[in-house]
Write a structure and sequence with these properties.
- By secondary structure, the chain is an alpha+beta fold.
- Helices cover 20% and strands 40% of the residues.
- The protein has 2 domains: 1-48; 54-210, Immunoglobulin-like, CATH 2.60.40.
- It contains 3 helices and 11 strands, in the order αββββαβββαββββ.
- The N and C termini lie far apart (65 Å).
- The structure holds 2-acetamido-2-deoxy-beta-D-glucopyranose (5 copies).
- It comes from Digitaria exilis.
Length: 211
């Protein structure tokens, strides 16, 4: 038995092995407890956390239609909004939208630095896992988009354009919780006639990231 005690000098020869066994048991119990707590806390967070609105630019493209009679261009894009939250309604309101050169996407003065600025309609995503489509359309002229108009008017395309959305993200459970949220939809192509088959599905959908 002295061998088990490891030759340690003790008041009793039998107690040290039992003490170590108890300590080990306690340690294992503590670890298991911590693991269980971690799992529970995680589960509660998953249930309670209102997952954020998920936004996607369909076909990753801002389509451009020439309106020669008017000397203007019609820009259009489809944004798909999904509400992953089981309990909450989500609204994305008071929206400011900018098309920006990717190198400028996080500028503090987007109104000054953008290619074009517009104000989309509010996005309302009621149902869990049911996508809502928002079609955004705007007419631009040589005046409203100087510097970029000519290229697009000549059927050119612009790549690496970011759509930036700034708005109030409202989560409605029983009351409304509002926070300012910015989304970046990157690597969009601007150009391509929406009625021309050649430009349909030339790009994959672009998932937007929330800042
Ligand atoms: C551009 O053309 C469309 C269609 O003809 C017209 O409805 C719109 O008012 C024009 N926009 C501008 C800014 O000239
Ligand atoms: C974006 O900016 C970069 C660097 O400033 C420039 O080379 C590029 O041509 C710009 N792209 C567009 C679409 O204006
Ligand atoms: C747009 O404006 C510029 C400068 O004012 C001019 O040179 C250009 O021809 C215009 N583009 C079109 C398509 O009218
Ligand atoms: C641009 O494309 C449209 C239709 O695809 C065509 O009618 C028009 O002539 C083209 N313009 C230029 C400048 O190439
Ligand atoms: C929450 O905000 C939305 C959008 O502004 C509004 O339509 C809705 O009535 C609000 N709900 C509550 C409970 O205040």
């Amino acid at each position: 038995m002295a061998a088990v005690a490891g030759g340690e000098a003790g008041d009793s020869e039998k107690q040290p092995p039992f003490r170590w066994l108890n300590v080990a048991r306690c340690a294992v119990a503590a670890v298991v407890m911590v693991l269980i707590l971690a799992v529970i806390i995680n589960a509660i967070q998953v249930v309670l956390r209102p997952n954020s609105l998920s936004l996607t630019v369909v076909e990753g493209t801002v389509f451009v239609k020439r309106l020669p009679e008017e000397k203007n261009l019609s820009l259009s894009l489809d944004l798909r909004a999904e509400n992953p939250s089981g309990r909450a309604r989500m609204y994305y309101t008071n929206l400011d939208a900018y098309l920006l050169n990717t190198t400028m996407e996080s500028t503090a003065k987007p109104r000054r630095d953008c290619i074009i600025y517009f104000r989309p309609k509010d996005i309302v995503a009621f149902d869990q896992q049911q996508a809502v489509m928002s079609s955004m359309k705007l007419h631009v002229t040589n005046k409203s988009m100087p510097g970029y108009f000519d290229k697009l008017y000549a059927n050119g395309t612009m790549r690496d354009v970011t759509l930036r959305l700034d708005g109030d993200l409202v989560t409605e459970v029983t009351i409304n919780e509002t926070r300012r949220a910015t989304y970046y939809c990157r690597s969009l192509i601007v150009g391509g006639d929406p009625d021309d088959e050649a430009f349909r599905y030339w790009q994959d959908d672009v998932h937007c990231t929330k800042a």
